Structures are given as C-alpha cells and as structure tokens.
Amino acid sequence: MSTGFADASLVGTVRPGGRLLVTRERLRAFAEATGQTDPVFVDVATARRAGHRDLPVPPTFYFSVELAVPDTFGYLTDVGIDLRTVLHGEQGFTYHRLAHAGDELSSSSVVVEVADRREGRLQLVTSETTVRTGHDEPVATMVNTVVVRRPGGAGR
Amino acid sequence: MTAPRLEPGARLHLAGPTIGRDTLAAFAQASGDDNPIHLDSGVARSMGFDDVFAHGMLSLAYLGRLLTNHVPVEQVRSLRARFTAVTPVGARPTCEGVVRQVVHVADGDRVTLDLVVTLEDGTRTLVGEAVVTTPPAMREARHE
User: Fold this and answer.
1) What is the per-residue pLDDT across A76-117, written as a single tens digit (0 to 9) for each?
2) CB atoms closer than 10 angstroms to residue B19
3) Are the beta carbons of A155 and B47 separated by less than 8 Å?
4) CA–CA separation, A67 and A107 (whole Å)
5) In the structure, what pLDDT confidence band is assigned to residue A3 with cuts at 50, 70 and 90?
6) What is the pTM of this model?
7) Which residues on B lie below 8 Å from A91 (Cβ)?
8) Residues 6 or more apart in contact with residue B90 via CB below 8 angstroms
9) Is residue B27 within 8 Å of B119, Cβ to Cβ?
C-alpha cells in the first residue's frame, strides 16, 4: 500500500470546521452509547431542575462537532495519507462555557505541530480546534493528536 | 450518591461495560466517528490488528462520566488523555481517578485529578488528567 506522509509544511493549515445543531435526540443517543444513565443528560425536566436551560452537552461530545465536517480528515488524505494508518493518539478539552441541546455549534481547526517519533516510523500531527456557539461565544478548545503509522509497520 | 470528597488522594472509580460490536456500532452512530477500523474486522486485520477495537473517544467518554458522577458537568474545566493501547472488542475497561491536587481559590476549589483506564489484564489504555472546580457552597455541603 502506498501512502503519503505529513511534513512540517502542514503546520498552520486551517481547515473548514464542522457545524452541528445539537439535538436532544443526538444527546440521548450519545448517553445511551456511552452508558450514561444520569437523568440530567437525558431528561429535560431533570436538567431544568439542575439549572440547565435544556439537556447539557457531556464533556467529550464536542468532538462530534469536528466530525460533522463531511471530510474531517481531508487535511491528511490531501497529502496522500491512508486513513487506515491513522490512530487517535491524544485528545484534550478545555471548557469555556457549557452548551445545551438546541445550540448550533461550529468549529474551526488548525494544525499546530507535526513531529516524528521512532526514527520517523510514526508521525504525530496535532491540531487545535475551537468550538463556538452561533453567537460566536467560545465553548471549548480541543487539542487532537493523530498518530500516522508508516505502512508495513506492525500493529501493536 | 455517596461521592467521596475531592481531597488529595481521594479515588474515583467507574466500571465500564464489556465492549461488544454493538457497543462500537452505537458509539460510531452517536458520535459520528464511523472509521471502519472500529467496525469492520477485515479492515482492522488489514492494518495488523487481530480484530476491531474500541474508539479511544469511547473510553474518554467513560472518563467524562467518571467526572460528572462527582461534579456537575459545568464544573468540569478540562479533560485530556493519551491513548496508550487499544481496547479490543470483548475487553472491559475500568476508569479510575485520583485527586492529585486541590487548590483553594477565591470562588471555591480547583481540583486536579490523574486519570487512567485499565483493562482486566492490566493494560493501560488511556492516561490522562482533568481539572474540576467545586464552589464554596458545595464544599460546605460536603463537610456536613
């Protein structure tokens, strides 16, 4: 299999962000898929009693805004990287304000670092993504590192 | 809920489920991460893995639950983790948090936790850190 490889020229590449209208249905599906049974995340009346205007967004759901781009990993495939050689290496969230069901969130991402590991057999590509509300208020900053494995390298 | 007070050394614990293919399909759908390496055994094998394995973000979501089981979601200030090993289908992840540091600030406590997700065989799949805040009112309530 032939595959490309990122290089430092990728740093600073801004890519189009995602846009996601957060619905109660989507948050309930996410709760179900992650074993979240706390009613504050699935029941509107419970959420309101806890002071929320609607179901609150759980801490890691913001990543789905980034995934809402039709071609989330286009910045990698554009330089010839086979996505099957890519693994998620690291993910961080810093929270600025809580979002709720009904909010339309958008994201924008930029590559902040490209680094070699293990004599170049692995490459780490780190991006920073900002998630904002429809009123342009910052909601969360995400830092995402993907690991690109050179083809022929064994799996773990 | 008899949550432990978030003092240095306090331990938080959450047992995840046994990860089935249905777990991965549901998470792919709900999160929007439909990478076939988590869904299609053939794709996983073509990349040198024995079979499909869980999305790292699924285990990170369990760590999010660990936090929100102890503080309201609006008090989670940051969460990050390194994915250090894959979680094979059939494995059962366990999440643990240990309070590393509590800093008293004007409007409450700022609590830093070390986080780890471990499989039954001892493999560490995620290693991370979170910061949560607890307002003074909650601190008082917890001392009652």
Assistant:
1) 888 888 888 888 999 999 999 999 999 999 999 999 999 988
2) 23
3) yes
4) 10
5) low
6) 0.92
7) 56-57, 60, 80-81, 83
8) B18, B19, B20
9) no
d(CA A116, CA B44): 24
ipTM of the complex: 0.91
B14 near A33, Cβ under 8 Å?
Answer: no
The amino acid that residue B48 corresponds to is G
Both tokens of A19, joined, read 């846009």
Q: Which member of B32, B74, B85 has the closest CB to residue A67? A: B32
Amino acid identity for residue B98 in this structure: V
Cα A155 to Cα A98, A149, B46, B49, B93: the distances in Å are 38, 9, 10, 6, 20
The H or E element spanning position A126 is strand A122-132
What b/e sequence results for B101-114 when a residue is b if at least 16 CB atoms lie within 10 Å of its CB, and e otherwise?
A: ebeeeeebbebbbe
Strand partners, B114: B98, B129
